[in-house]
Amino acid sequence: MRVFISFEGSFEPFDVLAEDTVRAVKLMIKDYFHIPLSEDKQGKMYLQLMYAGAVLNDDWSLADIGISLGANLKCLVKKENKPTLYIYNAVTQKTMPIMGSIYLLGKKVSYLKTLITLRCGFPVSIFCLRTPQGREMYDCNTLIDYQTDIGTTLRLDVWDGWKEFLTGCLQGQKLKVQQYLSEEEPVLKYQKRVALYMAAFYGYIELTEWTLQQGARPNEAVGVHPYREWCHETYHPDTVKCPVHAAAETGQLLVLKAFINYNVLCLDCKNAVGQIPLMIALKHKHKDCVLYLVAKMWSMVSYSKISIPMRIYIKIKQWLLRAQHHILQRRHHNGTQVFRTRVGDFVMVDGFTQPKMTSKEWSKAGNKGIKSNVPKLPSCHEKTQSRKTSDPLTVPQQQQSVGSVKLPPIKETNEFSRLQECYSNNQKKKMATSRKNEVMTTNLYSAQVPLPSLATRGYSHPPFYYVTPKAARFLTSSLESFLEHSGKTARENAIYCLATASAFKEKRWLQQLEIAKTMAKKSIYNLTTEGPTSK
């Protein structure tokens, strides 16, 4: 049969067979128009064939989807870009693609860490990047310095003993975060700032409230790990980012409201490039957050006799806090510089000390056990021993030797009733599984299946025919056989075929129904000719 292919303004006829697949037609089009298709590390170019508004799969045959004599098909050349780099996250154990051009390889490692932070929500100070050979990558070097090529998979490692803690932060599990907190006071404060940052990034309200109660502030920078506080020359610029900046980046409106109600200074908190939360929300196009922040920035703070604009109120409060901090510093420390690290604390210097960011688990990082606030009950053995020492005459002989107690034997039940009960339980399980799969399939494809409008006139229903028991048994066995070999029920297969046929939007509903019927017949034919498919 002859069909017509439109490609870049031209309209050419092609002689094809009804049994030909879409892949074979694409090869004919490629040879006829001399289309240069390619596939390399940066991406690939391929042909896309469309009919009646739907994209055709390569495995479909022309007859199955209703392509007949004189049909018009549209051909396009598509380009698909491949990720420039891949990042393997040691915490989630998932690989994250990083899109971009080849010029990304000329950027510094610090720039790549900024992109990763925007994707996974990790502060830049809690992880490092490693080459496939295990070599640590420092922020001041470029990716080309480490012989990084397109398609390279880098590894993201975190501080030793932090995997479980960060998993709790990613999932918003407050109890898990509490269990894996550090016992060192400086590290504990740093972990609370990290937990508040990640809770703001993902919008976990419960974890946000708990970290605020623990003393973490939304306008306080996450900073660096206490082990690296002496290496201030190599700080990443994003270490000054605060949890309020993370909430503005991801558009977490409820978290933003909680932060501003906690401290109004969050409105004027600036990041490394001097952007306040309003500018960050505008950059990432979070409309609700922008409207809320604008309303707050242009509001008035009212007192009994005077009303002050919010901007002036923030400036006055910042000036008072700076003056108070300066007075306290001079009173207690005589104007000397104060460091949070002390003599005897561990100091980590790049390239000289043993690395502490290898993503070791909590138990392998030297921690003794898991913290828990739940009181433990005394064991039965200890309770019995205490009774023996207090008053041995009150303890009966049966309690002293529990193993000597003999229980009466269980009476055997009827074998037939037991088998009948097992059979009924198995039937209930099968029915429940089938009903669950049917509901899932219906919910998945029902929104895609177009149905005709309800008829307003009353039509008589078709007459019901009597089905013999033999025919009923044959029909039941056929449906069970289809479920066994195809992995889905006949109803699920019908819904799938209708959903696939609904992609042909330029066809009428009855024509889409015919395509669905053809595809359903083809699926049954494939089962009878090719045998059962592997589940």
Strand order of the largest sheet: 2-1-5-3-4
Biggest sheet descriptor: 5 strands, mixed
Extended strand count: 12
Q: Which radius of gyration do the C-alpha atoms yield?
A: 34 Å
Query: Briefly, what CATH class of the domain at 86-303?
Result: Mainly Alpha
The number of helices is 17
Termini separation comes to: 37 Å
Secondary structure class reads alpha+beta
What name does the CATH topology of the domain at 86-303 carry? Serine Threonine Protein Phosphatase 5, Tetratricopeptide repeat
Overall geometric form: elongated
* Multimeric status of the protein: single chain
CATH architecture type of the domain at 86-303 = Alpha Horseshoe
**Uncertain spans, ≥5 residues at pLDDT below 50?**
386-405
- The percent range for strand residues is 5-15%
The average pLDDT is: 79
Helical content class:
40-55%
Helix/strand order: EEHEEEEEHEEEHHHHHHHHEEHHHHHHH
Verbal overview:
The protein has 535 residues and is α+β, with helices and mostly antiparallel strands. Among the domains are: 2-81, Phosphatidylinositol 3-kinase Catalytic Subunit, Chain A, domain 1 (Ubiquitin-like (UB roll), Roll), CATH 3.10.20; 86-303, Ankyrin repeat-containing domain (Serine Threonine Protein Phosphatase 5, Tetratricopeptide repeat, Alpha Horseshoe), CATH 1.25.40.20; 469-535. Helices cover 42% and strands 12% of the residues. The chain contains 17 helices and 12 strands. It has helices spanning 22-33, 109-120, 163-171, 174-179, 185-202, 205-213, 243-250, 253-262, 277-283, 287-297, 310-333, 380-390, 397-400, 415-445, 469-486, 490-501, 509-530; strands at 2-7, 10-15, 43-51, 54-55, 72-81, 85-89, 94-98, 127-130, 136-137, 152-158, 300-302, 307-309. The strands form 3 sheets. A 5-stranded mixed β-sheet has the order 2-1-5-3-4, covered by helices on one side. A 5-stranded mixed β-sheet has the order 7-6-10-8-9, covered by helices on one side. α7 packs parallel to α9. The longest helix has 31 residues, at 415-445.
